[in-house]
Amino acid sequence: MTKQFHDNVLGGDILDQLYNEARTYNGWLDKEVSEEQIRHIYDLMKMAPTSANMQPGRFVWVTSEEGKAKLAECASEGNADKIKAAPVTVIIGYDIDFHEELPWLFPHTDAKSWFEGDEEGRKEGAFRNSALQGAYLILAARAVGLDCGPMSGYDADAVNDAFFGDDPKVKSNFICSLGYGDPSTIFERSPRPEFGKFNRMA
Amino acid sequence: MTKQFHDNVLGGDILDQLYNEARTYNGWLDKEVSEEQIRHIYDLMKMAPTSANMQPGRFVWVTSEEGKAKLAECASEGNADKIKAAPVTVIIGYDIDFHEELPWLFPHTDAKSWFEGDEEGRKEGAFRNSALQGAYLILAARAVGLDCGPMSGYDADAVNDAFFGDDPKVKSNFICSLGYGDPSTIFERSPRPEFGKFNRMA
């Protein structure tokens, strides 16, 4: 029986941890992130929905000095320093040929055939759904007591060559540093819109 | 002083509500979702990060019978029935000209100039970041005790004409029904990948 949580509004501290007090960090305390923590984040993220369970995200968790140096070379100067200082930076990539995996990921129908011969449609679906997965990852990291620093200021072609060169159907979407945020490295909170600015009822 | 939550791993019930036991619903109990709940979801979602605080998402919360009929006409047959039955379906749109708002959304530098004259780059940034916002929305809805049914099976051009026709720089990304999920309408959980399948350390 599926557990349901109807009208169970999570407490203020939990919403603070996930949304209201969580911040984008630009620097990190000198404290490691373990592979166990990384696996926990992935095991949460993978449960959240993607279209036809396509799970197009392909993730490279950069933790070694060599990996950081390689990734930093592809980034803008400011982001390169952040990558080198972070315990982990994950590359959120996507596989344009995700449909090859659908026979086992979505076994109750022939979903693979929906995408065959439609590379543009696959690219759009993989990009959208890997971005969703990246957001699930950010909130999962926060849910296990880590902080995030997502970035898109880098040379995507260089990252693709350096990390996905053996599989040209995989491209990077964005990258995200993870760790224990140094509170001295956050900027003042940017303004947030009132509901009426970007929302309407219909 | 920023609140931090280092190593505070949220409890199992909370992770169940957000990730592990939450499911995609195809049908809904006969129970309304209030505008107050919708505003709460938005007020959480908007706190989560977008690149340069661009906040490109534009949201139409379809709750009226007329709105549902109009949206259902743009959807595949199966999704049309789901839209008509759901208390709310939100259209997650994005504004390709989001950069016009950056002077107040990202006031400490001239971020607008980074995007001027680069419509392709704006389109990519708006699509990526509105997808992130859609994922933040899904988890925020779950955090306030609602269920979700995200969908991309619809005619995007028709939705753009019907709901964003007065502003051709706004396009739909995906749509998501919200409400109190009817547990009889979920499918068997699709398989999830082991860590090693789509992840590697570097």
From TrEMBL, chains A, B:
Gene3D superfamilies reported for this sequence = NADH Oxidase (3.40.109.10)
The record ties this protein, via CDD domains, to: RutE-like (cd02148)
User: Which keywords are on file for this protein?
Assistant: Flavoprotein, FMN, NAD, NADP, Oxidoreductase
| Source taxon at top rank | Bacteria
Stated EC number for the protein is 1.-.-.-
GO MF terms listed in the record are:
oxidoreductase activity
Domain named Nitroreductase: residues: 30-180
What the entry lists under NCBIfam families is as follows: PRK05365.1
Family, according to the entry, reads as follows:
Belongs to the nitroreductase family. HadB/RutE subfamily.
Task: Specify the protein name.
Answer: Putative NADH dehydrogenase/NAD(P)H nitroreductase GRI43_02175
